[in-house]
Amino acid sequence: MNDEQLNDLFKTARDAKADTSRAEYGFETRLLARIRAGRESASIFGWAWRLSPYFAGIVAALGTWAYCSPAQIDLQAIATNGADDLQVVEFFTGDKI
Question: Residue ranges of the domains in the chain?
Fold first, then answer.
């Protein structure tokens, strides 16, 4: 094949109009669907949904750390340190804490 024949083939390929009617069908619908999908993923709920596995992992790690922690916290001792506060709560509520 010589250069002239090759150039003629390229020219006929450039001149041929592609059938784009199939791509044009439903273009507006596809465009609006893509825009809506972009908006939904940008909301705070979309981000929370994407990050929920990481949040669950953090909660599981903290739960495991709290369960396996050797230091036991005595909440009664912490509550009785502020005896004045407890007396005020007992006075207003009538319940002994």
Answer: 23-68
